[in-house]
Amino acid sequence: SRSINLAVIPGDGIGREVVAQGLKVLNSVLPQDVKLETKEYDLGARRWHRTGETLPDAEMAALRQHNAILLGAIGDPSVPSGVLERGLLLKLRFAFDHYINLRPSKLFPNTSTPLAGRPEIDFVVVREGTEGPYTGNGGSLRTGTPAEVATEVSLNTAYGVERVVRDAFERAAARPRKKLTLVHKNNVLVYAGHLWKNTFDRVAAEYPSVTTDYLHVDAATIFFVTQPERFDVIVTDNLFGDILTDLAAAVSGGIGLAASGNINPTGEFPSMFEPVHGSAPDIAGQGKADPTATVLSVALLLRHLGHESEAARIEAAVSADLAERTASAVRTTDEIGDALAARVAG
Amino acid sequence: SRSINLAVIPGDGIGREVVAQGLKVLNSVLPQDVKLETKEYDLGARRWHRTGETLPDAEMAALRQHNAILLGAIGDPSVPSGVLERGLLLKLRFAFDHYINLRPSKLFPNTSTPLAGRPEIDFVVVREGTEGPYTGNGGSLRTGTPAEVATEVSLNTAYGVERVVRDAFERAAARPRKKLTLVHKNNVLVYAGHLWKNTFDRVAAEYPSVTTDYLHVDAATIFFVTQPERFDVIVTDNLFGDILTDLAAAVSGGIGLAASGNINPTGEFPSMFEPVHGSAPDIAGQGKADPTATVLSVALLLRHLGHESEAARIEAAVSADLAERTASAVRTTDEIGDALAARVAG
Ligand SMILES: CC(C)[C@H](C(=O)O)[C@@H](O)C(=O)O
Ligand SMILES: CC(C)[C@H](C(=O)O)[C@@H](O)C(=O)O
How is the cofactor bound (chains A, B) (predicted)? Predict the structure, then answer.
C-alpha cells in the first residue's frame, strides 16, 4: 500500500527513546511516494497513575483504524505487577487477535554472545499469541489465607493451534533449510500436548518438503545453548515461546537486538511490532538504550505491510552497523538511530 | 540410621547401567557397620509392554516400606508419550509427596560448558514437586475434531507453596551466600504468581539473613547464560523448575552430571533420587552413558539419610575424577563407576 497510518505507543521507560529512533529510520527508509502518518497514544504507567486507565474502549477503537502499531515498552515498578501487562499489552495482543508472535533470532557478526565458539544462529520462533496459559483464565479461592488455592488455566483450541501451526509450516517451507520444530511438554501436559502434536503431525502431511522435529521444552533449552544451529523455525505455545525467546535473545546478541511482531495475518486487525526487551526503567532517559531491537521491529512491520525491500534494507543496515561497532566507541541511543537512518536513506 | 533398605528402579534405556554404578559407589562408600539392603523393582517400558501396568498398588505399597528409592531413568519411544511419565515417575513423586525437587548445579573444573569465560556456577534449584501444571488436572472436549478444546490447569495451594518456600529459605540460610531468588511469571500468571510472591515475601520476613530476589522465568533464562554466578538458591514452581534445571544442567557440565532428589522432608514417605537425564535409548546398552549424575544422586540420597560425610566423600571423588578426565581417554560407564568406587573406598 502507498500509505501507512501508524499508531505509536511509546509506553514506559526506554520505550519513548527507542521508538523515536525506530520512527527516524522508518522515515528515512520509506520512498517519497509512501505517505507515512503517525499518531501517538499515551498509554502505559504514567497514564495509569494519572487516570487509572490502562486501555479505554475509545482508544481501542481508534487503534483499530491503523495499519499497524509500533510499541516501545510497557511496565514500571511503580505499577503493581500484571496491571499493565494484562490490561494493556496482552489486551492488545488478544483483542487484535495477534495469533502469530514472530520472534527471529540471528547472531550477527561482531555481536556478543555468552556462548563459546559463536555457533551459527539463525532461527525464528513462531510463538502462539492468543491462547495457552496467557488467557487470564485463573482465579483464587480463600485468597490470602492459609487455605488459598490459586489456579491458572491453559486454554488450547484446535482452531487456535491449527492456525499457528499452519503459519509456521508456511514460514518453514519458504526458508532454505525448511525445518520446523514443535516445542511442547506433551509427556506431562498430555491434553494440550496431544492437541498440539496431533495438529502438527496432521498439517505436516501437507508439507512434505518440510523436515519436522519435536522437542520437550526442557530439552529445547539445552539445545538453545549447546546446538542452536539445529533450529530453523520453531512453533510453540504462548508461555514456552515467552521463555524460549528470551533465552534465544540472550544467546544471539542480547535482548537489545531482539525484535518481535504480534501479527494478525488475516489483516482484520492491525499488527503490532515491539522490541522484546522491556521498559528498563534503570536506564530510562539516559540515552543509553540500544534502539536496534526497535529498528529491527520496524523492519518486521514493513515486511508485514508488503514493503519487503525496505525491510531488507533496514536489516542490512543493522548488520553493517553492528559489524562496525567497537567496544570502545559507545554511542547514544540517538547516535545509533542516526547511523541507521543514514544507512537506509534511499 | 545404621541400615538402609533401598528400593532400586533401574527403569529404561541407560537406567540399568547407570544405576549399577550408583550402587557400586554406594557399596564402596558405606562404612562396614551400615547394612545396605536393596530390592529391585521391575518398572518401566518393558513391564508396561508385558503387562500393561505402570505402577500397581502392590508395588506402590512395597516401595513405601523402603528408606529411599534410587531410580535410573523412565521412558522409551515405544511407549506413548505421557504413559510412563504420568503413570510411573510423576505418580511416585505425587503419591510420596516429594514436594522438594532438589537440583544442584555446579560447574566443576575441567568439565564442559557452552558458556564462554567459564563463569562460576554453584547454585541449587528447589523445584516444587507436587503442584503447578503437573497435577494432571486437564482435559479435552470434542477431542480430535476441529472444535477441540484442551486445557491444563495449574493448581497452587498456600499449603503447597509455603512448605517449599520455607524449605528453600532454610537451605539458603545454611549456605555461605544466603541468597534466594523466586522465579515465577507473576505479571501474566497473576493468581498463582500472587500466591507465590506473597508467600515468599511473608516467609522472607522470618529470614532477615537471607537476601531475596524475584525474576520472571523468561528473564531468569537470560541470567542463566549471561550471569549464572548471581544465583545461590532458586525456588520455583514445578514447570518452571523443570525447564530451568535442564538449562542449568546444560551450562554446568551437561545433563550427564545433573543429579536430583525428589524429597519428602517429613520422612512420611521414602524420598527418591534420580539423574536428571532421561533414558537415552540411542546409547542404551553400549557402556557409553556417564554414570556421574547417578553417583551424585546417590550422594544426595546419603545426605538425606543423614550420612553427610559419605555424601561429601562422593562429591569430592566426582570432583577429583572430573578434574583428571581427558578428552582423549574416553572411559566406559563401568570404568567410570570403578574409578569413583575406588576413590570413595573407606
Ligand atoms: C511483559 C510480558 C507480559 C511479555 C510476555 O510475557 O509476553 C513479555 O515478556 C514478552 O515476551 O513480550
Ligand atoms: C520425564 C519428565 C516427566 C520429567 C519432568 O518433567 O519432571 C523430567 O523432565 C524431569 O525433569 O525429571
Answer: Binds 1 Mg(2+) or Mn(2+) ion per subunit.
* Rounded Cα distance, B19 and B275, in Å: 9
A289 is in an annotated binding site: yes
CB contact under 8 A, B146 and A133: no
Q: Which of B159, B162, B204 is nearest to B181 (CA)?
A: B204
My answer on whether A165 and A191 are in the same domain is: yes
Indicate whether B3 and B91 sit together in one domain.
yes
Do residues B264 and B246 share a domain? Answer: no
Cβ neighbours of B136 in A, within 8 Å: 190
Handedness of CA A218, A222, A224, A227 (dihedral sign): negative
Rg of chain A (C-alpha set): 20
Q: Is the dihedral of CA B83, A132, B241, B21 positive or negative?
A: positive
Q: Output the residue whose Cα is nearest ligand 1's atom 5.
A: A242
**A248: phi then psi, degrees, rounded to nearest 5:** -60, -45
Q: Which residues contact B1 (CB under 8 A, 6 or more apart)?
A: B67, B305, B306
Range of the domain at B208: 113-139+150-252
How far is the C-alpha of A22 from the C-alpha of A333, rounded, in Å? 11
Q: How confident is the model at residue A63 (pLDDT cuts 50, 70, 90)?
A: very high
Closest CA to A271 of A58, A102, A106, A37: A102
For residue A34, give every residue at least 6 positions away whose Cβ sits within 8 Å of its Cβ, in sequence order, or none: A2, A3, A4, A307
Does the pLDDT at position A240 exceed 70? Answer: yes
Instruction: Indicate whether B92 and B223 sit together in one domain.
Output: no
Number of compact structural domains in chain A = 2
Looking at the CA of residue B90, tell me the nearest atom of ligand 2: 3
Q: Would you say the pTM of this structure is higher than 0.90?
A: yes
Spatial CB neighbours of B211, under 8 Å, sequence gap ≥ 6: B177, B178, B179, B180
Last residue of a domain, one of A252, A281, A305: A252
**Last-in-domain residue among B225, B252, B279:** B252
Q: Which of A54, A85, A102, A134 to mutate to test the pocket of ligand 1 (most atoms within 8 A of CB)?
A: A85
- Whether residues B20 and B119 share a domain: the answer is no
pLDDT of res. A329: 85
- B266 in the same domain as B135: no
Examine residue A92 and state whether it is found in any structural domain, yes or no: yes
